[in-house]
Amino acid sequence: MSASTLWFVLVGGAAALTHMLVFALMQDYIWPELANALGFCVAFGVSFVGHRLLSFKDASTSVSTSLGRFAVTALAGFACNEVVFVMLLRGLGLPALLALFVALLVAAGQTFVLSRYWAFRR
């Protein structure tokens, strides 16, 4: 496993834990879909900073270019996450945290490919 891949997994894990923590704290107060969106918003900062400084530190793009591209990448990942989350939660009746965990895993692969080859292009 390359250093970039290892950092991606660690940073992604930290962002996913942040996302899940915010979700867990908010799910009793707002709709689960909104708690998922709020978790995404908080985790976005963790993810961008970690990936820029650690996972893709050799990026040839400027910080502002990477931020814009990563925002598009992250929003695409969140769209995937939200669709999977709603299908598992509402369609299959899975517990909310389990549905979120699976949705985060599905979106992670898409996010890695877009991050590596576009947002933080080398």
Radius of gyration, taken over Cα atoms and rounded to an integer in Å: 14 Å
Mean of pLDDT? 91
H and E string: HHHH
Low-pLDDT segments:
none
Task: Indicate the topology.
Layout: H1 3-26, H2 32-55, H3 63-91, H4 96-119
Helix pairs in contact: 1-2, 1-4, 2-3, 3-4
Could you provide a short overview of the structure?
The chain is an all-alpha fold and 122 residues long. Helix content is 83%, strand content 0%.
List its salient traits:
mainly alpha, 122 residues
General description of the model:
The chain is mostly helical and 122 residues long. It has one domain. It is 83% helix and 0% strand. The two termini are 18 Å apart. The model has no long low-confidence stretch (mean pLDDT 91).
